[in-house]
UniProtKB/TrEMBL annotation:
Protein name: alpha,alpha-trehalose-phosphate synthase (ADP-forming)
Gene Ontology terms describing biological process: trehalose biosynthetic process
Enzyme class name: transferase
Family stated for the protein in its record: Belongs to the glycosyltransferase 20 family.
GO molecular function: alpha,alpha-trehalose-phosphate synthase (UDP-forming) activity
EC number in record: 2.4.1.347
Species assigned in the record: Corynebacterium qintianiae
Reactions catalysed according to its record: ADP-alpha-D-glucose + D-glucose 6-phosphate = alpha,alpha-trehalose 6-phosphate + ADP + H(+); GDP-alpha-D-glucose + D-glucose 6-phosphate = alpha,alpha-trehalose 6-phosphate + GDP + H(+); CDP-alpha-D-glucose + D-glucose 6-phosphate = alpha,alpha-trehalose 6-phosphate + CDP + H(+); TDP-alpha-D-glucose + D-glucose 6-phosphate = 5-methyl-UDP + alpha,alpha-trehalose 6-phosphate + H(+)
Stored InterPro entries: Glyco_trans_20
Length: 428
C-alpha cells in the first residue's frame, strides 16, 4: 500500500503540541527550522503529537498536512524518556551526564522506529522523497529501505555525532550505524560530526555531508521600538540587559552563565545590569532535568537575594514557553545574549538573536562548543567549562562590536533555513 505524498518529513515530534486551548508550536530547534521548509514544499509531516496514549487523526495546521503517530505510555517511558533522552542524548552530547543503557529501552526504540517506518510507508507515494530527522529515528532509514526500495531517503542529525571512542560505549552501536546506512544521504551539522561518523563506517558507507542548519529570518521579527522601550522600562531601565533563551536542558549551561554573572557582581565588575532568563520546560520527568532545574532556580534565588532589591531583582526568570511573537522583543532589547551550552548541535537561539540585530547593536556571548560557533566566530567566544572564560566574554560583550554583529547578521540572513534545505535536498 502506498500513499500520495511525494515529499515526507518524519520526526519524532509533530510541529505542534496539544494544549487545553488548542494546538500550539512545539519546542526546539528541529521544529523551528523545518516547519517553514515543509510549508514551502507542500509536503506532509509524520510525527508524534506530544502526549502518550491518545489517538489523533490526520489534520492540517498552518499549511502543513500532519500525520500523527501514537505512542503508548510504555513507548513514552522507554523509547522517549529512556533510550532517546537518557541513553542517546547524553551520549551524543559527550557525556555531560552519564548515559544509561537498558535492553528494555532498546526494545522500545526498535518497536517505535518500526511504527514510524510503517506510518511513512503508508503515506509516501511511489518514488517519493523521505527526509528522516534526528537521533530518535536512526533505525527508520534501514527499515524503510527494506520495505520501500523505491523511496529516496535522506537523514539529518540535528545534534552532535560523538567521537568513535564515545559512540562505541553503546551496546547496540552496530544496529544504529546499520540503520543509518539505509540512507541515500546523511547530513550532519558540522564537519567534525561527519568525520566522527565516517571514522566508524569507513569509506564505503552511504554518502554524507555537513549542512549547518539555519533559521527562517521571516519568522522572527525584531520587536518594535516601543515594545522594546516598554520591556526595558519594566526591567527598571538597566544600562545593560542580558538575555538567555533555552529549553531547560543540562546541555545548555544555564547554571554556569548565572554563576559567571554572580562572580562578576561580587567582584563589582558589573553594575546596573538586568538579566532575563527564559527557560522552556523540557523532558520534565527525567531526573537530570529535575536536578538542573533545581540548581538553576536555587542560583536565581541566591543571586537575587544577594544583589537584587525590592521591586528590582537582578535575574528575571520565566519557566514557561514564551510566544514566538514576543521573543523578537526580548532579542531586540538585549544588549548581550548569553548562549553557553557545554555542547550543542547548532543552537538556533544564537542565530535568531543575530537576525534581530541588523544595525550592528547588541553582542553575542557564544560557547565554542555550539555548532553555531563555526559560522558565528566573530561572537565573544567562551569555554563554558571555565567560569573565568565566560566572565571575560561577558565583559567584552558589554562594550559590543558593531562590525562583528553586522557581519554575522549578513551570514545568518543569507544562509537561511531555505538555503539549508535546498542544499541538502539538491545533494539528495
Ligand atoms: P534546541 O533545539 O536544543 O531546543 P535551539 O536553540 O537550536 O535549541 O532551538 C530552540 C528553539 O526553541 C528556538 O527556535 C527558540 O526560539 C525556541 N525556544 C527556546 N526557548 C524558548 C522559550 N523559553 N520560549 C519560546 N521559545 C523558545
Ligand atoms: C532538540 C532535538 C529535537 C527535539 C527538541 C525538543 O532540538 O534535536 O529532536 O524535538 O530538542 O525536545 P523534545 O524532547 O521536547 O522533542
Amino acid at each position: 500500500m502506498t500513499g500520495d505524498n511525494k515529499f515526507v518529513v518524519v520526526a519524532n515530534r509533530l510541529p505542534v503540541d496539544r494544549t487545553k486551548s488548542g494546538w500550539r508550536a512545539s519546542p526546539g530547534g528541529l521544529v523551528a527550522a523545518l516547519a517553514p521548509v515543509l510549508r514551502a514544499h507542500s509536503g506532509c509531516w509524520v510525527g508524534w503529537p506530544g502526549e502518550p496514549d491518545t489517538h489523533v487523526p490526520p489534520f492540517d495546521f498552518d499549511g502543513i498536512s500532519l500525520h500523527p503517530v501514537g505512542l503508548s505510555g510504555w513507548d513514552f517511558e522507554n523509547f522517549y524518556e529512556g533510550f532517546s533522552n537518557s541513553s542517546l542524548w547524553p551520549l551524543y552530547h559527550d557525556l555531560i551526564v552519564t548515559p544509561q543503557y537498558s535492553p528494555e529501552w532498546w526494545d522500545a526504540y526498535k518497536s517505535v522506529n518500526k511504527k514510524f517506518a510503517d506510518a511513512v510507508a503508508a503515506v509516501a507515494a511511489e518514488g517519493a522523497t523521505v527526509w528522516v530527522q534526528d537521533y530518535q529515528l536512526q533505525l527508520v532509514p534501514g527499515l524503510l529501505k527494506e520495505a520501500r526500495p523505491d523511496l529516496t531517503i535522506g537523514f539529518f542529525l540535528h545534534i552532535p555525532f560523538p567521537s568513535p571512542d564515545l559512540f562505541k560505549q553503546l551496546p547496540w552501536r552496530e544496529d544504529i550505524t546499520r540503520g543509518l546506512e539505509g540512507c541515500d544521504l546523511i547530513g550532519f551539522q558540522r564537519d567534525e560530526d561527519e568525520q566522527n561518523f565516517r571514522a566508524l563506517v569507513g569509506a564505503s558507507g552511504p554518502r554524507t555531508g555537513a549542512f549547518p542548519i539555519s533559521i527562517d529570518p521571516g519568522a522572527i521579527h525584531p520587536g518594535a521600538r516601543e515594545d522594546v522601550d516598554k520591556l526595558r522600562e519594566k526591567l527598571g531601565n538597566p544600562r545593560t540587559l542580558m538575555l538567555g533563551v533555552d529549553r531547560l536542558d543540562y546541555t545548555k549551561g544555564i547554571l554556569q552563565r548565572l554563576l559567571a554573572i554572580e562572580n562578576l557582581l561580587e567582584q563589582g565588575e558589573l553594575d546596573d545590569v538586568a538579566v532575563v532568563q527564559l527557560a522552556t520546560p523540557s523532558r520534565e520527568r527525567i531526573e537530570h532535568y529535575k536536578q538542573t532545574r533545581r540548581e538553576v532556580e536555587e542560583a536565581v534565588g541566591r543571586i537575587n537575594g544577594r544583589f537584587g532589591s525590592v521591586g528590582t531583582p537582578v535575574i528575571h526568570y520565566i519557566h514557561r514557553p514564551v510566544p514566538k511573537g514576543e521573543l523578537g522583543t526580548y532579542y531586540a532589547a538585549a544588549d548581550v545574549m548569553l548562549v553557553t551550552p557545554f555542547k550543542d548541535g547548532m543552537n538556533l537561539v544564537a542565530k535568531e538573536y543575530v537576525s534581530c540585530h541588523p544595525d550592528g547593536d547588541g553582542a553575542l556571548v557564544l560557547s565554542e562548543f555550539a555548532g553555531a560557533a563555526v559560522e558565528l566566530n566573530q561572537a565573544y567566544l567562551c569555554n563554558p567549562f571555565d567560569l573565568e572564560s565566560i566572565q571575560q566574554a561577558i565583559l567584552g560583550a558589554v562594550d559590543g562590536d558593531p562590525e562583528a554583529m553586522r557581519a554575522m547578521h549578513k551570514r545568518v540572513t543569507e544562509y537561511d533555513v531555505d538555503r539549508w534545505a535546498q542544499t541538502f535536498l539538491e545533494a539528495l
